[in-house]
Structure formats: C-alpha cells, structure tokens
Amino acid sequence: MLDEFYIEELVKKKFPLKSASFPTGIGDDAAVFKIKSDKIVFSCDSQVEGVHFDLRFLTPEQLAFRALSVALSDLCAMGAKPRFFSNSLFLPRKTSKVFIDRLFKGFRNGCKYYDVDLIGGNVSKSESLALDVSVVGEVLNDRFKERNGSRVGDLIYVTGNIGDASLGLDLLKEKKRFTLKEKLIISKYKSPRAKVEIGLFLGQLEFLTSMIDITDGLSLDLRRLLGPISSRRGATLTWEDIPKTDCTLPPVSQNKLITSVMNGGDDYELLFTIKKKRAKHFEYLCKRNNFKVFRIGSVNSSATLSLIKGGRVRNLKPQGFVHKF
Amino acid sequence: MLDEFYIEELVKKKFPLKSASFPTGIGDDAAVFKIKSDKIVFSCDSQVEGVHFDLRFLTPEQLAFRALSVALSDLCAMGAKPRFFSNSLFLPRKTSKVFIDRLFKGFRNGCKYYDVDLIGGNVSKSESLALDVSVVGEVLNDRFKERNGSRVGDLIYVTGNIGDASLGLDLLKEKKRFTLKEKLIISKYKSPRAKVEIGLFLGQLEFLTSMIDITDGLSLDLRRLLGPISSRRGATLTWEDIPKTDCTLPPVSQNKLITSVMNGGDDYELLFTIKKKRAKHFEYLCKRNNFKVFRIGSVNSSATLSLIKGGRVRNLKPQGFVHKF
C-alpha cells in the first residue's frame, strides 16, 4: 500500500542531492536555497481533477509536467528566471504506487526541461486528486515586468497561437482519432511549455511596459493586463493579426474559433505591450534573436475592449475561465 | 455567489500594499520580494478537511491561523526567520462569502502575530476544503539547523509540553463542556504557535547539533531527527523528564497519556540535540533569555528508541501520524 514514506524515499532516490545552490537537499523540515539576486519571484498554481484536468486526457507524466509548466509560466510573465519548485500533492484513497512513480517521472522531466530543482513538497489524503505547485525564480539585472504598466498608444503583442489549447481540449472531448494537424493542436493543451527564454528576453526590455501570461482567455487576461476599468485603458485587437490555427480545419466552425481564441484558456503564451516608438526596433531585435512575436492590437483610452474583424468593429467582453463556488 | 474575483478584491483591500521588501504587492502573476540574506528557507504544508481538521472544532479564523502556524513551524525547526507566505485554497461548492471573510481574518491575524506578509495565493474549486500554505524565511548570520546532525552522547531537549494537542483533540471529540484546565489543553490543539523566537535563538547556537518540530508524534519525529536506522543512532528518553499535562487530570488514563505523549501529533514544539559538554552553558543561556527548555534524554548508538519509566526500560516504537492511501 502507498504511504507517505514511499513518496519520501522515491523523492530522495530520484531527485538531486545537495548542491551549491541547494545546500540542505530534499528531506528536511524546510529547504534552504541560495539565490544571488536580492529580488526573488514567487508564485503558486493548483490543478484539481475534474476542474483543471481530466485523467482520461492526460497521462500522470503529462499531468505533472503540465502542472509545473503552468506554475512556471507565471514567473515567465514577470520576465524572471525559474530556479526551484515544490509540489503539494492531494491524493485520493487507492492511489497506486505506479501512478506516483509516473507522476514523479513527469516532475523529473520538468526539472530537466526547465533546469529547475525540486526543493520540497507535501502529501495529504484528499477526496479529489489535486496538485499545488509553488515556484521560485530570480530577477536578472534588477529588471522584472508587471501587469498594469501600459500607456495609451502602446502596441499589444503575443508570443504564439491563441486558442489552440482550448480547441485541443474540445477535440479530445469530441473524438477518438485525430489527424496530424489535430494532434499538434491537442499537444498545445496536453503539453504547454512555459515561455522561459522569450520571457527572460522580454523581461530585460525597458520599452516593454506590461506583461502577463494567457491562462484564462485572451480577452480576460488582456483586461487584467490593462488594469481596472477605472484606469480608462482599453484596447482594440485585429482578428486577422491574432496568430491561431488554420481556421479551415474541420470540425471548427468560425464561431467556435472566435470563442476559443478570445475566451479559451490554457495557452500560456505571453501577452505584453511595447511603446509604439520602439516597436520597429523591438521587432528587429526579436527577428535577430529568433523569437517569434505577433502584433495584435493597441492600447487606447476607451476603457473597453473591441475586436476588428473583416473591417467591422465589435465589442469584446472580457470572458474566460473563472472559479465560481 | 462567491467567485475568485471576490477573493481577489478582498485580498487587495485587506492585505498590505507594496512595501520596500515586497515591491510588486499582491495581485500580479507572481510576487517579487526582497531578502537580504543570500540563503532563503522554504516550506509548504497542507491542511485537508476530514484529514487534518474538523470544522466542528475550529472556526474559520482558527483554521487559517493554524494552517499558517503549522507551516511556519517548519521554518522555526531550521532556526530561520519567517518573512512571507502564500495560501492556495481549495474550496467546495457553496463556500460562503462569510466563511472566506473569516478565513482571511485568520490569515490577517497570523500576519500581525508573526510579522509576515501574504505574497500570493490561488483559489480552486474542489470536492473537499483544503489549504496549502507555502512559507518563506531567511537565514540569519548564515546559520541554520538541520535534522540528522546529532552525535552519540548529545542530550535531547524539547521546548514545551508534549501530547497536549492530541489530548485536546480527544477531549473535543468526547465532551461538550470543559474545565479551565481542559480548555488550556484544547487551546494547544486549536491554536498552536510556531516557536519563532526560541527557534531563532536555537538556530544561532553552534553546539546545537540537530533540530526538528514535533508534528506527527514525539517518537516518530525523534526517529526522523536521529536519521535512518543505518546511522546506528538511537535514543533513550526518561518519561518523568518529558514535560506534559498534569496526568491526574480526568478522563486521561495513564495509557492514553503515554500514547498521546509518544505518538500524538500537532504539538509543534521543537525537538533538538545539544552537545553534552555544552549543556550546562546552554541551560544557563536559556534561563538568562527566559526560554523554557526541557532535557528529556540522550542519543546513543543502539539504533533503537527506549523509554525509561519508573526506573524500568521499555522499547519505544517510532509511531505517529502517517498518511496512507
């Protein structure tokens, strides 16, 4: 039978021992780690079965890797460098050792992929399976980015396709067999990647005025990025400029595509604003560094969001995934 | 109806804004905080309804304060100074706004009591109510303590009564009306205090060889403190030296008292070892600084635990609270 000692031993065996930046190693009451920067970045993110994920669609390895990616994405949104993470696990009765082995394999894959160390965790019995991942990063050169720094006239950019993850999840729910194109979209849902490298690059640019990651939907997270309505900041996006999957792809109707792109979550692309005067230089820098960015709109003083599609302007409601109780 | 925006607004309203050591304030993707020490201490701890707590016995304020205390206790066990915390909340359907208000009142009380800042959190729907609290502290003067540093001959100490919390919980389950003495014991269960001041004092002593906090039971945590059986380290405790509640107190039988003291958890007292040669000096320092400590035994090379009671030696099994699935 699985108990907490099994997990303790597994972690001690499979995760790195003491290192220069992590002198205690795993297994004490708390972890001691070293960070050279005096500014530390912290975030936490939970994944609950039946709310955030469905085990029919994710392997335990994917679940763990995904939970880590989602949490690290918040550090990327600040332009910070990921360094450490912890995992609090809430496990239902009859969780098997095999499941735990595979879950920690996923975390190990995450450690390698993102070059981060597991520094602690916790395990509890619970009704439903849940993971709470806390992440610690560092600020480089004393520079980090926040939401809420944009000014009227700034240009709005994203780092990649919007809506794919949401469409991917829909495909998983609807079908059993997939084309190659569909599989690519599905992988955006199953295996999102935190945008570490481009996040670090963007975090150092003094003319980048605000940044967020798209977790709950483009329109909702754009509203968060612009700040409260009282700031009077609004934005206009151009549909044709938003990077998205080939919309002729069946079985995606045009309406569904709009909903997925505007309100679908789970993309973990970065959304940010750049001073207009520096846009040309910015795009040149991105090209030179091989970073893909897409200009999708601009900040205005309307306090509202609008979308231009086919030359027609429509009102855009900030909608997306919201926890209600 | 309660949704995540309500909680976001509540936190923004009730918790401190930006400060010198927390320049981003609450509400961004991640928190940026400053710590002068280059060594940072991190831990996380979860509380799940039906596993760790019962809402018949704790108010929402007590639940939050307790969850924070329990998590901070791990920093105290390292001799570190608590600075920041985050709370991930897992909330069942129909959680009320009043419950959330009271829960955050408890966290606010904790902020004041421990002089720590809330730097982030997360909220998710879930089957069962659960809280995952992550805590960040700093190492002072480059000194911190770990488990597993004791040597044969070292003396074993605790900082206060053992078994009270477990007896308190039993009383809550058995009775409805309590004597003053019983109320005191119950408060040890309901409102444990992380041992911040004495933890910091102990953390600076070079002759303190190992430290842990008692969360799952004296015998189990003593075994953890001594390290694996392969270390060959064992210990002998003397029953009469262990600080505990007045055992004549009804309805506590002698056997129940032994079980509570040896295997009962939730006390959050510190358990540590001191080099024998320095014990006298150590006890003098404690007296001078008004810190209460109790010598309860010593480390030997037997690889096992024993208890001397009334002059008779008995074998002591490392038992306590263990999560099984």
Strand order of the largest sheet of chain A: 7-9-6-10-8-11-12
Average pLDDT for all residues of chain A = 94
CATH homologous superfamily designation of the largest domain in chain A:
PurM-like C-terminal domain
What proportion of the residues of chain A is helical, as a percent range? 25-40%
Shape of chain A: globular
The SSE string of chain A, one letter per element, is HEEHEHEEEHHHEHEHEHEEE
CATH topology of the largest domain in chain A: Phosphoribosyl-aminoimidazole Synthetase, Chain A, domain 2
The tally of strands of chain A reads: 12
Largest sheet of chain A: 7 strands, mixed
Radius of gyration of chain A equals 20 Å
The rounded distance between the terminal residues' Cα atoms of chain A is 34 Å
Instruction: Give the oligomer, counting copies of the same chain as homo and different chains as hetero.
Output: homodimer
Based on the model shown, name its key terms.
homodimer; 325 residues; alpha+beta; 60s Ribosomal Protein L30, Chain: A; Phosphoribosyl-aminoimidazole Synthetase, Chain A, domain 2; 2 domains; seven-stranded mixed sheet; four-stranded mixed sheet
Précis, in short:
Two copies of one chain form a homodimer. Helix content of chain A is 32%, strand content 25%.
